């Protein structure tokens, strides 16, 4: 066994973290296959543009506006259900409405108010 074999054996035993570090610090050029540093946007060997590769998860899109919108939709839904539940006698519905429905629709409305306020607050403080 000569020195070259020993060196190869050593290089075979990469821990996961060192392998990850190698992947993060160097990547392959898509055109010539040679390693390119991460901070370089052009391959030093063939001068082709190397696209940026993101290894981590994609950043979460801003969803504060959708929270406000969802809060208002919950409020409207709660109001409609509450209106139907309270006026069920005069609306001549073919079915009876449980009295707990008006209580639950109030909770839905208040939940919508809370969600809309939270969305607005998150939007203002962000
Ligand atoms: Zn290249």
Question: If you had to describe this structure to a student in words, what would you say it looks like?
Answer:
β1 and β2 form a beta hairpin. The protein folds into 2 domains: 56 residues, no CATH class; 62 residues. By secondary structure, the chain is mainly α. The chain contains 4 helices and 2 strands; from the N terminus they run ααββαα. α3 packs antiparallel against α4. The chain has a two-stranded antiparallel ribbon. The mean pLDDT is 79. Bound molecules: zinc ion. The site of zinc ion has 8 residues, from loops.
Keywords:
126 residues, mainly alpha, 2 domains, two-stranded antiparallel sheet, 4 helices, 5% strand, rod-shaped, binds zinc ion
Global structural class: mainly alpha
Number of helices: 4
The spatial strand order of the largest sheet comes to 1-2
> Cα distance, first to last residue?
63 Å
Can you tell me the residue ranges where pLDDT is under 50 for at least 5 consecutive residues?
none
Largest pleated sheet: 2 strands, antiparallel
Multimer state = single chain
């Amino acid at each position: 066994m000569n020195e070259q074999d020993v060196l190869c054996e050593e290089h075979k035993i990469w821990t996961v973290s060192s392998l990850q570090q190698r992947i993060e610090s160097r990547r392959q050029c898509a055109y010539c296959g040679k390693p390119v540093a991460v901070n370089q946007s052009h391959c030093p060997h063939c001068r082709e543009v190397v696209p940026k590769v993101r290894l981590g998860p994609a950043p979460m899109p801003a969803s504060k506006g959708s929270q406000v919108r969802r809060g208002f939709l919950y409020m409207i839904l709660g109001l409609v259900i509450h209106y139907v539940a309270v006026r069920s006698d005069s609306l001549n519905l073919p079915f009876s409405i449980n009295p707990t429905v008006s209580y639950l629709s109030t909770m839905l409305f208040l939940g919508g108010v809370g969600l809309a306020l939270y969305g607005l607050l998150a939007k203002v403080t962000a």
